Amino acid sequence: MIVASDNHERVSAAQRRSWQQQLSHAIRDPSILCKRLGLDAQWLTGAHTGHGLFEVRVPEAYLSRIAYNDPADPLLRQVLPLGDETLSPAGYVTDPLEEASHQPAKGLIHKYAGRVLLIASPTCAVNCRYCFRRHFPYNENSPSRAQWQDALQYLRDDPSIHEAILSGGDPLAANDRQLAWLVGELEKIPHLKRLRIHTRLPVVIPDRVDSALLDWLGGTRLQKVMVLHINHANEIDQAVIDACTQLKAAGVTLLNQSVLLRGVNDCVETLATLSERLFEAGVLPYYLHVLDPVKGAVHFDVPDDEARTLVTRLRDHLPGFLMPRLVREVPGEASKTPL
Ligand code: SF4
Fold it and tell me: How far does the centroid of ligand 1 lie from the alpha carbon of residue 173, in Å?
């Protein structure tokens, strides 16, 4: 793969920065993104239009894995805003999972029995164009320590809850002091057994897995599960494998969830290579989600019939333990719905 070679020296310098610096230096200008990747002018108008709906955000460590001058690159497709984001067919809405109706406390979403989701950070390291939370009202769900008390009390009062899921945004975009405090509060709740973290940061900026994170994560009494979000094998470079190795050494079970995306991974060979590469990194495939019908993302849609056919054919290529489960999240259902 030819990557953005004129960026190599700058990328290397960027990767020596702390993860916080890499986060704050992420590209947030669609013109710069197009220029750095050698895209011709025809992409600019759409990039600015999409950016106006959902800000572009691409850190250098992720940019370095994108091919130069290739608008079809599967990683670029995930982050490049397009004019297609203005399309708004019936059924595509701003809150496809109806999360607003499952928030008994600020920053807390309780949809499924036995587990709750905590919005631990309002931001992400990368803005994925298909994100089902691209319209989420993070401003109303970014609790301060004092405001977390309602959510924590909700957990204390319900002994049927055994698992807390840190989500966002990307929960690992929060600083380690805040996360260590929150996890410290969670582990005081006797009926909580597991801490699950849904994150893309160890993939997008692998330097996020540093000693400060490993300290609080490795030290908690809670069983630890990290669900990464990787959609294509090209996202898994050596730095990602090294980050995963460190997480596993800290006692973290690593799983992956992908979204089936038109033009990114809607191909049997691509999905098979992804599963193989995940396993090389010590990560088990978990879910393959069909697209949530979020406004602005219809161009990523793969129809259900095609998704089922893909997964049926995928079984011919992989052992069972490398097969992700094809699912859809249906508002109001008690769990993810297999397709
Ligand atoms: S990292 Fe996750 S939450 Fe953030 S934009 Fe991407 S898909 Fe959405």
Answer: 11
